[in-house]
Amino acid sequence: MKSEEYLMCEKNWVFYTLILISGYYGAFTYVLRGNVFCNAQTGNVVLMGMALGSGNIRHGLYYLIPIGAYMLGSLVSELLPNPIKHTLSIRWDTLLLFIEMLVVLGLGFIPESAPVQISQVAINFIASMQYNTFRQAQGTPMATTFATNHIRQIGIGIAKEIKGKDTTHRKKLFKHIRMLLCFLSGATIGTVLCHLFLGRAIWVTLIPLGILLSQFIKEDVHMESLEQVPHGH
């Protein structure tokens, strides 16, 4: 399919932008909000099991909060798309970007002395909704909130390079490489700015989010796109 035949929420550049923002979120929560990564929950499940296995039941049960926030995000993003587009005449992915910008704006006002769990749970929630909403970049399954699968796919692509002369995989390989580099760039930039501006550094992500939102709204003006379902849903 040609690029123009995909919805805005499926465009490659949108996924590159989103994963750059997610890398930034990862740096933000690790540097300033409790030395944790909130974009995925594997680590929290492991930490919960370690706490329970060590007999620290209360600490183990604490991890139900971020895990529950992540689960709630996927629940909300699964139930709301159809009601939203028929009620507000905009796509769910457009509303999600607006919600994400509101959350980011609020997080920037939280003082450094506030409990880190506020920021952790908020980013757990929006990361889950983003991961569940943006699934394929122009036909290629992608994750916009963590890098594990991109690293795996790069390894697979290199193996195919070694195996033979077929080059059909290269487009997908380079796409995963760009995703990984964008995630790394977001984490690098986020770390530098978090050290400079502390909690208000999160506001920097409003710039790329605002650019995305403006393009999504422009597409939603054409009502026929509202009924088109993104690939992978």
Layout of strands and helices, then pairs:
Elements: H1 12-32, H2 42-53, H3 57-62, H4 64-79, H5 81-87, H6 92-109, H7 116-133, E1 136-137, E2 140-141, H8 148-163, H9 170-197, H10 206-220
Antiparallel strand pairs: 1-2
Helix pairs in contact: 1-7, 1-9, 4-7, 6-7, 6-10, 8-9
The secondary-structure element order is HHHHHHHEEHHH
Number of strands: 2
Count of the domains: 1
Helix-strand category: mainly alpha
Q: Quaternary arrangement of the chains shown? A: single chain
Q: Roughly how many Å is the radius of gyration?
A: 19 Å
Strand order of the largest sheet: 1-2
Strand content: under 5%
Summarize the structure.
The protein is an all-alpha fold.
Structure explained in plain terms:
The chain crosses the membrane at residues 12-32, 60-80, 92-110, 180-203. This is DUF1275 domain-containing protein. Keywords: Membrane, Transmembrane, Transmembrane helix. The chain is mainly alpha-helical. It has one domain (12-212). The protein is 67% helix and 2% strand. It is built from ten helices and two strands, in the order αααααααββααα. It has helices spanning 12-32, 42-53, 57-62, 64-79, 81-87, 92-109, 116-133, 148-163, 170-197, 206-220; strands spanning 136-137, 140-141. It has a two-stranded antiparallel ribbon with strand order 1-2. Helix 1 (12-32) packs antiparallel against helix 7 and helix 4 packs parallel to helix 7. The longest helix is centred in the C-terminal third of the chain and has 28 residues, at 170-197. The two termini are 17 Å apart. The relative contact order is 0.20. The mean pLDDT is 92.
